[in-house]
Here is the input.
Amino acid sequence: MLEKKLTLKSNKKVAIVYRLYSLEAVKMAKKLATKLKAKRYKVFTAPEQKQIPGTALLVSSNELKEMALVIVLGGDGTYLRAVRLLKGHSVPILGFNMGFLGFLTVHSVNEVFLAVDQTLKNKMVLHTRSRLHVAVKLKSGKRVTYNALNDVVIERGSFSQLISTAVYFDKSLVNHIKADGIIISSPTGSTAYSLAAGGPILHPEVHAIVVTPVAPHSLSTRPLIFPDNKKLVLC
Here is the structure.
């Protein structure tokens, strides 16, 4: 994870992502939009949510790449939704915890106006997080790709039997895992589902991937940690 001084673009465009169905988050979004507009910033409501009064509604994720900053008002779920909407575009995200979990949204909602003001003055530090790039081969032969900040899960779904998965790292067979499922996690995601399944917590600066089995059949099957600079294949 790299750390550097935040330098916002001069375009003065800020998008807000708020926790859905939360009256408190909507109320705070309205107040924040008013404050930003008073400072002559152009404020936008991110896609897939109801338009905040006095802001412009963004229709697609491609429009988000033009933002100087994305502000998140909600819990970790809302933060992850903002990451998904960005689709890999390098736009800084500032999160405030208005939900149940705050591993990603580390700032208190009581600090909204102070923290936003410090951010707009480029007095904040920018941290980058590694993500998982996933390629899936479908039965039809078609390949689809995804990017994930937290994790990727392979599960048995509605089937009652265990699934058997071979794990290869850098073309070498590591193990055959029989379990209800397998979690492939980034350092950021190590505090989520992987942790609940008995996986280790990784510091965000660690360049690694965690593979955590869910309810494995064998007592010797344990979470595995791999460097993130080579390919991991599960089949």
